[in-house]
Amino acid sequence: MSRRAVATVVLCCGAFAVLAGCSAAPAPAEATKTVTVPPTTSASPSASSAGGSSTDAPGRVFDPRTMQADVRKILTGTYQMSEVGEVLCPSNQKVEDGSTFTCTVQVAGEGKTVTITVTGDDGRYEVGAPA
Kind of pairing, strands 110-118 and 100-107? Predict the structure, then answer.
């Protein structure tokens, strides 16, 4: 084989190696996960006082204890987190499509927040990854 043929083969192989390295897509950054929780008994009607009109009532609100248990289950099961400690979600959060609020959680002794996004008026909500 002539020097010119060898040089051509070497250049082609080098170009192929460079192109093969360039075509490999970099690993995508981990997406923020959200988990939708189906409606359960975590949404309950609020109690109205005797004689009060129904328009004064805030509507349905989430039960914070049930939500805290659900968030803990999602963090340990779906997000595969260990050392999940106390979870605290605020009370009197309305079941209102599009509303958001945060719960606080202890993960490995560190305080984190978890965003809750209500995804319907039926009691469904998404649990975001801890931040």
Answer: antiparallel
